[in-house]
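Sorry to interrupt, but I need a hand with the structure work. It will help me judge whether the discrete encoding reads sensibly. Write everything out right here, beneath this request:
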Amino acid sequence: YEESARRSAGWLEGTLRQSWTAANRGDVDKAQYLLAWLYQQMRRPWEAAVAAAYVVRTADDDDTASEAATLALGAWFTAWREATDDGAAEFEQVLAIARQIETRWPQSDRGDLMRASVAEMLRDAGDLQRAGEWFLKVTPRSPQYAVCQISGGLALWEALRAERSQRQDFSTIRKAEVERIRQPLSEGVKRLEASASPPEELLCIAKVALAGMALQLGEPREALRLLAEGKRSVVSLIAAPQEGERPSTGIQSNSYATGVYRLLLLAQLGDEKTDAALETLKQLESLSGDDPRALTTMYVQLVEQMAAGLDGADESRRAEIARAIDPL
């Protein structure tokens, strides 16, 4: 196959050199597009990208131009992944082609596919802020709209938390920042829950993030709703398998379930459901197993989080928190 592609590409290169000025412009564009496609099949992404980008600039036929733009985007994406340096030049070319597609064909299905592809590339590169922004560019007509709304919200939330963690300052996260991220996440969750068979792991991760945001905004009851209520509640999704042990990774793993139950405990305490919180504490103890170091670390962290709620609490509320802290 590769040998056939190489021969075909050689023939097209020769033909284009001989008839570049004399041939019909449309025929040249189609030949150049086919050459770009062959380069891509031959794992020569740089040549494929340049050849396809030329067709985008010159083609009078809009379908040919848009197909070439999509090919150029994929080729530059491959070139970026295969770059021997940091790939900065290839990365800028990906963004340039993406913006061109977005501007020239704003309503096309290719536009949404391109937006999602660029977002995934940015996420792979670790640029969560820009990844989130590109995910949220996907339009509601796309079949992947709900997934992209969630993916975008999660990327922006992680970017915000990472930025504050680097500065060691979570106190300055403003309500407006959280609300801006919460809106697309909530929309994505709503649409996924309405579908026949949503991807449960993504749905669970999105709900956990929303519960964390609700606690950040002082809304423990909303956090409880997300974690413990409904047909596909987080608590039901992270439940241990009926047979065998919990897996080492994923939403049913010990580490993930521990994080969820800690959120649930804080939500219950915030909503003054102390008895329920004590039951959740038992779940946390069972997840920690018999490791005294793990249990001690968990107790210390929980006491610190609970004690933070004492500030500004009235006498009865302080007594409730003290009752939850006492067993620890």
About this structure: The radius of gyration is 27 Å.
